[in-house]
Structure formats: C-alpha cells, structure tokens
Amino acid sequence: MKNSQKKTESKNKMGSPSEGEPIFLVVGKLRRPHGLGGDLLMEVITDFPERLKPGVQVYVGDFHQPMRIHNLRWHDQLLLVTFEECNSLDEASALRNNLIFVRADDRPALDEGEYYHHELLGMLVRSDEGELLGNLTEILVTGANDVYVVTRQDGKQVLLPAIESVILEINPGKKEMLVHLIPGLV
Which of 12, 78, 159, 177 could lock 41 by a disulfide, CB 3.0 to 4.6 Å apart? Predict the structure, then answer.
C-alpha cells in the first residue's frame, strides 16, 4: 500500500522506516567460520531458503553491507555459505553473529490469504460482536499454528490461535482483523 504522505526519514536498527513497510527482511544469522577459505555457517531464518543461491545479493549486519553469495550448501541444519567478498578466515570471523537480510521488495509473492508477519503486526483487532480488542503486537510460532498476541488498551494480552474458526477476516488495506472469540480466549 502506497502512502501519499512523505515517510519519515528516520530508520530503526533493522533498516526499516519508522512507519510502513520494512525495507529489509531477515533471512539468516551468520554463526561461525568453517575452514580457512572464508566459508561461514548460517542459521536459516526464512520460510524461503530456496531463494538463497549463488549470485543473489544479500545485506549483512546492522549497516546492510551488500554481499553476493558465491556458493552455498546444506551442512546439517545450517547453510554453509561463501560470499564473493569474503576469502579468508579473518574476513569470515569479522562477519560472525551478523544478521543476513534481503530487500523486502524482493520477497516472493504469497498465495491468496497468506501474509508475512510484518504485514499483520500492528493491525487493529475487532471481534465479530463489534468489540475492539486491541492491536496485534506479536506472533508466536508454535508447532500446530501461529498464535496472535493482541494487546488491549489496559495492557492485558489476548492470545488468539491463528485458525479459520477464530481469524475470520484480514484486511491489509485497512490494517484490521476480524476475529471470533471462542469460549475461554478472553
């Protein structure tokens, strides 16, 4: 959604404007160097690891240093990644524990009715009985389904399972969510 007002120039540590869509999305976290040639082990923090491949530009660390993936392969539960700009153990060591980002405008399209978490956070949540519940402030990822944490005006929280019988409608244009409160949720 485009906003006709000029966006605030200030950005937070993750590279996002203080209002609106993020500019960068986290896809991984570099762990430790592997070997002497500049390889690093990377924890994957994305549902789309297949988009990380040789030739793809990513952004490393708080200052979003652009780097191009030279090679990668799975190593147990982690990716073993080599960047074109990193050729030694010392260079790899300097990148340790940095987050890896991609540009948000380069993210894959989702199917109808699917949303990225950042698109849902901040939404106003109303019940199907007209009650204003609060704002969606956090999403807990569980094994069965996500749980939406809605913070009420009084600071109390309501936990809503992200299932069809509870989440009735999501309107990203209005930044609103309509929910059905089953007994025991509030």
Answer: 78
